[in-house]
Write a structure and sequence with these properties.
Length: 301
């Protein structure tokens, strides 16, 4: 029996890459999976492909249970339909894994409003729409006196935690998702809902475009950037075993798992009275000298 036996899970963007790996691993651990995917290209362009159907077939052929869903995560009514798909097919919902997204990489000086809005919408609004409808369902369950042990698993990125050259919109969306996770964890615990976040480092259609050969690294026979490396963490976070873990951002690359510390108070000095603008410079130099070095922005080394 797997650690997710009987759990019902929505995985968005589950037709390829990380989402596909998550859906297959969750099914192997006993979960019933709603495989959501629009079948769009890496820039969000429409295609005739339906990879969600292929993943569902893989799960069913392996003896699992799954259904496909083709709604847009960034559409309010679409988010409701994704949640309804789970309840209609399996009678309940236990977890949402927000994974769907695409990139439109551009240096900040070249980024257009249309590109900016498209990336923010699919990532940040997409996380909002699906989770918001799921939370409405779980909150109603809790208010009706039924036990809730639900999960939201969000997807940030190293780009969101430290920035990435050429990805201002993507980095901004992913930073917003990390902050959203903290708020969800604080607000939703009363209803039996946890919220955690991943910053995976894996080979997908998006990362291969940005990082190319770097995504083919191996340690002997171990494929460091295989999407499947992140899937066990998702399965554990979805399972009942993670009930006491919330508000965390996990980074994972290959076999290395870490928990991000995020923004925290750094060096400080209290003058005890109002500063003069001209005197701030020397004190800021002192504070910068005393603060720990920040992780470099991706693309600056």
């Amino acid at each position: 029996m797997g650690i997710c036996e009987g759990r019902v899970v929505i995985v968005t963007g589950a037709g390829r890459g990380l989402g596909r790996a998550y859906a297959l691993a969750l099914a192997a651990e006993g979960a019933k999976v709603v495989v959501n995917d629009l079948g769009v290209g890496t820039h969000g362009d429409t295609t005739a492909e339906k990879p969600a159907d292929e993943v569902v077939k893989e799960i069913i052929d392996a003896g699992g249970e799954a259904v496909a869903n083709f709604d847009d995560v960034a559409d309010w009514d679409g988010g409701a339909n994704i949640v309804k798909s789970a309840i209609d097919a399996f009678g309940k919902l236990d977890a949402v894994v927000n994974n769907a997204g695409f990139v439109r990489d551009r240096m900040f000086v070249s980024c257009t409003p249309e590109e900016w809005d498209a990336v923010i919408q699919v990532h940040l609004r997409g996380h909002f729409c699906v989770s918001r409808h799921a939370v409405d369902h779980w909150r109603a369950e809790a208010k009706a006196g039924r036990a809730v042990d639900a999960r939201i698993v969000n997807t940030s990125s190293g780009a969101g935690l430290q920035g990435s050259v050429g990805q201002s919109a993507y980095s901004s969306a992913k930073a917003g998702i990390a902050a959203l996770t903290l708020v969800q964890a604080a607000e939703l615990a009363r209803y039996g809902i946890t919220a955690n976040c991943l910053a995976p480092n894996a080979r997908t259609r998006m990362t291969e475009q940005a990082f190319g050969e770097a995504m083919s690294a191996r340690q002997g026979d171990f494929d460091v950037f295989a999407p499947e490396n992140t899937a066990p963490l998702v399965s554990w976070l979805v399972s009942e075993r993670s009930t006491d873990v919330t508000g965390q951002v996990f980074e994972l690359i290959g076999g290395k798992i870490s928990i991000a510390l995020g923004w925290n108070d750094g060096p400080a000095f209290d003058k005890g009275s109002r500063w003069e603008a001209a005197e701030l410079g020397d004190k800021i130099v002192d504070l910068l000298r005393d603060r720990p070095a920040a992780k470099p922005v991706y693309g600056t080394q």
